[in-house]
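Exercise 7. Given the encoded structure of a 150-residue chain, write a plausible sequence.
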């Protein structure tokens, strides 16, 4: 498969967004107080690394085959907390920022999908976008479970 210059440049942009996600989730997993949230961020960081691998595959001209069903990931189990109100406030800030990042990345995929000519590449990008939406949903669920929405 040959990519156009525009496609190559879009992949590069998506890759740098994904790298930012990996970096944020690693930093936020270290910074979060609640263990459930640490685990949530750690798992999402792993997903973002996989996205980078898929983008690299596409950039190298390979057409990734996305495996069939896309089961929604679940929230990690709740853990008994000893976080102070101030810690919880910091955790809520990390969640809001991660949620905003997921929204941004998801819309980036949405825009890029329209620019690619290969159907399998579109499917792969669509698969990743769906996962970004799931990430957003999980963070939302966590926030709502912990009363972080007023
Ligand atoms: Fe991602
Ligand atoms: Fe994500």
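Solution.
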């Amino acid at each position: 498969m040959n990519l156009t210059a525009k496609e190559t440049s879009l992949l590069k942009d998506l890759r740098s967004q994904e790298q930012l996600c990996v970096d944020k989730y690693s930093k936020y997993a270290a910074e979060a107080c609640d263990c459930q949230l640490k685990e949530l961020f750690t798992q999402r960081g792993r997903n973002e690394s996989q996205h980078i691998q898929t983008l690299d595959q596409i950039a190298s001209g390979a057409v990734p085959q996305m495996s069939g069903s896309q089961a929604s990931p679940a929230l990690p189990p709740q853990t008994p907390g000893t976080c102070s109100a101030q810690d919880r406030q910091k955790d809520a800030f990390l969640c809001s920022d991660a949620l905003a990042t997921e929204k941004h990345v998801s819309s980036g995929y949405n825009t890029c999908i329209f620019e690619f000519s290969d159907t399998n590449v579109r499917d792969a990008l669509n698969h990743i976008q769906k996962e970004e939406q799931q990430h957003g949903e999980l963070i939302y669920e966590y926030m709502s479970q912990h009363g972080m929405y007023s």
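Remark. The mean pLDDT is 94. Students should compare their own answers with the one above.
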